[in-house]
TrEMBL record:
Originating organism: Allofournierella massiliensis
Pfam families assigned: DUF4007 (PF13182)
InterPro entries named in the record: DUF4007
Domain DUF4007 stretches: 5-293
Domain of life per record: Bacteria
Protein name (Swiss-Prot/TrEMBL): Uncharacterized protein DUF4007
Length: 298
């Protein structure tokens, strides 16, 4: 299994980056690799060389674009990228961020630290050392290798992705420099306590009403494959399903499922031995996303 660490070059996603990236990929598929001096990527995108590399990486890590594996490494929008660009090109909707969160948290190969944090790392309260040690063990058990510096940089980037810099920094951050990551709006990580040498963080459980039922259904259908009956335990505990990627506990997940039940495409079934959901046929990841955007437009 391939693993990737520190591909972001320490730069977390800034507000406006993903929108700018999609817009420029549509205009010029070779925006990140062109040798044309009149279309220098730094000038076109208005960011530095290392940030250009980071943006190129992030667009793929969150599932908005993909690159050819052979020939010139031009980028094109994925089917998800096309849907998002059509309905929410500036990534202003919370549901869009939840969809991108799902893409990032399930991306085991390209965003290994994110995948590990949400799907395999079971500590709800943790320090940097806790996370890095656990990730090291996971890498060793997977018979892979990674530099400790890369793991520390990934941890810093995860924290900066979900917590505002104003909260993290010990010095006052000026508004001009405080360019936070839009994923902070999801409220998935918070600071539990700060000490001089150590900070303890916690995984935060979002409220069910911040996740649109159609977004939750998109993830459920994507993970279900051809199954139409899925146990509640699978939804809560299986890697890449709604419980893991959205930091849900059982109470919040049940509340979200009850809201999803009102769409008519999901039914919660309670039995003596096993509680499960039953999914209506005819829906998939993309039809659920289309339903989400259709509803918010109305």
């Amino acid at each position: 299994m391939a693993m990737k660490f520190r591909a972001h070059d320490t730069f977390f996603i800034r507000k406006g980056w993903l929108s700018k990236g999609m817009r420029n990929v549509i205009a010029n598929q070779d925006v990140f690799v062109t040798k044309d001096k009149d279309r220098n990527p730094m000038d076109v995108l208005g960011i530095g060389a290392n940030m250009v590399k980071a943006l190129r990486y992030w667009l793929q890590a969150v599932g908005l674009t993909e690159e050819r594996s052979k020939g010139q490494r031009v980028q094109v929008l994925t089917p998800l990228g096309e849907l998002i660009y059509e309905h929410d090109p500036y990534i202003e909707e919370l549901g869009t961020l939840w969809l991108l969160q799902y893409q990032l948290a399930k991306n085991k190969n390209e965003a290994t630290a994110w995948y590990f944090f949400f799907n395999e790392f079971n500590m709800s309260e943790f320090t940097r050392e806790d996370f890095v040690k656990a990730l090291q063990n996971y890498i060793v058990m997977s018979q892979e290798q990674a530099a400790i510096r890369s793991l520390n940089d990934d941890f810093s980037c995860i924290i900066n992705t979900y917590i505002s810099r104003g909260k993290i920094s010990t010095v006052r951050v000026s508004p001009e420099n405080n360019i936070d990551c839009p994923f902070g709006e999801l409220g998935l990580i918070d600071i539990l306590s700060k000490k001089s040498n150590d900070t303890t963080y916690k995984k935060s459980i979002p409220t069910a009403d911040t996740i649109d039922p159609w977004v939750a259904l998109a993830v459920i259908y994507d993970q279900a494959g051809f199954n139409t009956e899925i146990s509640l335990n699978t939804l809560l505990s299986s890697p890449c399903n709604i419980g893991k990627v959205f930091n849900l506990d059982s109470i919040t997940m049940i509340e979200l499922l009850h809201r999803a039940e009102r769409t008519g495409v999901l039914k919660i079934v309670r039995t003596a031995g096993l509680d499960y959901i039953k999914l209506e046929p005819g829906y998939d990841f993309f039809t659920c996303i289309q339903k989400y955007y259709n509803e918010i437009i109305q």
